[in-house]
Amino acid sequence: MATTRPSPLTLIVISLLLALIGFTAAGQLARADQPVPPGPEAAFHVPSLGPESYVQRPLTEAGCCPSFNWSADSNRVRFLDSVDEQTGWWSVDAEDAELRFDSDLVGYESPSGRYLTITEGTAGDVRVLDLLTGESNLLPSVGGRILSSPDESQIVFSIRDPGFGAPWTRSATIYLADADGANRRSLVRAVGSVVAWFPDGQRLLLSARRSSTIERGLWELNTDDGSLRLLLALTYFRAVELSPDGRYISYVRTPEPNTDLAGLWILDTLTLTAKKMKLSGSYAWHPSSRGLIVIPARAPDEDDHQLWWVDVDGSPPVPLTDPTLTPLAISNFEWELSPDGRKIAYRAARHLAVWVLDFGLALDFLIPELPTPNTSSIR
Amino acid sequence: MLRALQLNPIVRYVSRQIARLANGPRHRLATGLAAFLLLLLVPTVSASEHMASPPFSSPFAGDPGYDNWFLSQTYGNTSSAYRDRNRIYGAGQGIHFGLDLYTRCGTPVLSIGDGTVFAVDGPYGSYPHNVVIKHADGYFSLYGHLRVRSNNLLIGQEIKAGDVIGESGDSVDVVRCDISPHLHLEIRTDLMRAAVNPIPLIGGVRWDDASLGLSSSQPAFEVDLDAPRRWQSLYDQPDIRFGWPLLNDYPRPWPR
């Protein structure tokens, strides 16, 4: 009996069709092994907070987007993207994921959003744009990021020495200038970086490594006279942050072989006493400065991350989410607390979309200094 | 890279069915063409497929932790490498072509797989000492900034996964070991002329957590504003070839 073989053209067409089917099926298989996130209306019980709840919802499509951050009013999540040839800052509403294009000006914003600094060329020139008046000033050779003082009257920036070593090993000169770049003066030379302005606008928190002129540790730099005050001498530390009220400095001691010392610490700048927290992880200061939102690394047998409240008073950490109820696998610890301290935006590990975890007023119960919320408004 | 192309199970099934249909000379030509079309259409292996059976293991004993080790700078289009794309990382197309794993000096460094010693203190930088192990399937693992390399390492010597090949050191201060204590780990291919992302190839490590959240800011990766979503995760990063042109000389980068 003669065998009928398909023609070459038929084979090619079949292969294309099968490949298309394969892609579609593979995509479905890939999606099937992901935990199904809750819908926008799903709410979860938070055991440690009593009857309060939180809402988890997706804000963007899979793969979107890097460099996200919160708007100042905590209502929108902004990110860099290019859609329909419009490139720049896009944002989504944290409630209904409504998408809009915000700006094609990509730069660093001052605290109020009035000033925008944009690097020009390759020589480290930075243009400071006053979004209120439309005026701009070019600051030649200021290098990288500029930090505005709390009242936005002054700026600080670092210029690293040229050299072939890794950037974090080279000395830098830290400069202070008026907001428009005038009246530039050097404050100090160090191997290190400026972490933040203290809220009084007269001091800077400096994280310094070893150099010929400055001991390694955390320093307070007076911008009036350039004097330095050592707050803490320490060799191995990372992830330094200043609390919003400027009283506390958080940092992580690592790589630290002594388990008793390794982990998250808080230094009280009033008493200069440091205390190790009972839980360590990726963290962010709550705007009240009463504590931190902490996300520890998962144990090998855990699929999902868990959020915790860690109080500066050293009391036992409080779990904010329940990993048995909440699918929360975060990509490379890409998350950010909203300015009002009530929402977490994060990038999901499995599909790289941006999601929001909205606590509403539930977190406010943990912080006695804040007014007690009206329980009738709690979700 | 063609080497990195692996077919997912469904496409493998499709390919087998096409091969079964074609068994004559004319049809072999058609099959070849069809297979070529399939290869063009099939994407490189996904991260999840890599994670299912990664060929290598961790270079350290134990999980990442504040008292052990952590991922300080990952492979790829990092903002740090971008800033030094014309100097330190220029030879690697502007990409950070390895993993920087921070740990205290003196931490035992383990071979990530079975193989043979290919080089000891070869011309691969990573001062003060480096060791290269040759593995199956054309892979090489390079361990850099070793303070101490095991004394008994000989070229051609067989190595098993987990064997100690040296002790971690510091890339800047080899005496005090207090500036930048870390292991620089690369996985190379093409007889050391190219490098690939080690993250999907090393199992037993939960890489999304390996940084312990110690990065000081977002983004970890440089953004090309003309293609903002490209190369923005631990797993989606380009292979590089040493000596080839920069991959990240972006006209509109962020941050700058």
Folded structure, characterized:
The complex is a heterodimer of chains A (about 375) and B (about 260). Chain A has one helix spanning about 10-30; strands at about 45, 55-60, 70, 75-85, 85-95, 100-105, 110, 115-120, 125-130, 135-140, 145-150, 155-160, 170-180, 185-190, 190-195, 205-210, 215-220, 230-235, 240, 250-255, 265-270, 275, 280-285, 290-295, 310, 320, 330-335, 345-350, 355-360. Chain A is mainly β and about 375 residues long. In chain A, the strands form 7 sheets. In chain A, strands 1-2-29-28-27 form a 5-stranded antiparallel β-sheet, with no helix packed on it. A 4-stranded antiparallel β-sheet of chain A has the order 3-4-5-6, with no helix packed on it. Chain B starts with 8 loop residues before the first helix and ends with a strand. Chain B has 4 helices and 13 strands. Chain B is of the alpha+beta class. Chain B is globular. In chain B, α1 (about 10-20) packs antiparallel against α2 (about 25-40). Mean pLDDT of chain B is about 80; it is low at about 1-25 and about 30-50. Chain B has helices at about 10-20, 25-40, 45-50, 80-85, and strands at about 70-75, 100-105, 110, 115-120, 130-135, 140-150, 160, 165-170, 180-190, 195, 225, 240, 255. The interface between A and B is large, with 77 and 76 residues.
